[in-house]
Amino acid sequence: MSGSHTALVTGGSRGIGAAIAQRLADDGFSVIAPTRAEMDLGSNASIDAYTSSLTQAIDVLVNVAGINRIATLPEISSQDMEDTLQTNLIAPFRLIRAVAPQLMENRFGRIVNVSSIWSLVGKTGRVSYAMSKAGINGMTRSLAVELAPFNILINAVAPGYVLTDLTRHNNSETELREICKGIPLQRMAEPTEIADVVAFLCSDRNSYMTGQTIVVDGGYTCL
Question: Which residues are catalytic?
Fold first, then answer.
C-alpha cells in the first residue's frame, strides 16, 4: 500500500497505539494520530467537530484508544460505566460512521477495532470494560456484512496481556512474573507484535478477511 493512503489512529501517543502508528508510518502510510486535546473521545461534540474538520481523505481507521476502570459490581459507578462505553464503543462507532461515506464512495477501506481478551473471557472487576469490548466485536461483525459490498474490510484484534508502560506501572515485577506464568507462551506481548497483526489487516495483503475478532494472547484464552 503506498504512501498515498492515509490512516487515522486513535490512542496513537503511547503503548499499542504508538506502535501501530509507527508501524503504519514505516509501511508508507500518512498517519494522523490526534491527541486528546484535538479530539476528546469522551465528547461526541469533539468527535464530530474533529472529523468534520479533516481535510485529508481517510482510507484506513484504527480504533485503539480506550479506558479500563476496574471495579466490582457493587463498587462501579454509573458515571464510570457510561464513560467506558462512550470511549470504548460509542466513539469508535461515531468515527466509523464519519469516515464510512467516503470509503463507500471510493469502494475501498480498512477498519481495525482494538478489542480485548476480556471480551471473550471473564475477570473480576472488568464488567464495564468487557461490555464495551464485546460490543466492539459485535459491531465489527455487523458492519463487516454491511460494508463488504463496498470493498471495506473491518476486523477486530483482541490482545491479551501486553507489556506497555501502563502494564508496568500497574503491576510490580513479582505480579508481572505471576501473570506470565498463566500465559502458555510464558511472556506478555510486545506492542510491536500487536502492531504487526494490525498492519496486515490494514494492508492490501488482506483482501478477504473481514468480520473477524483475531485473538493475540500467547494462548491465554486456550486455557
Answer: 129
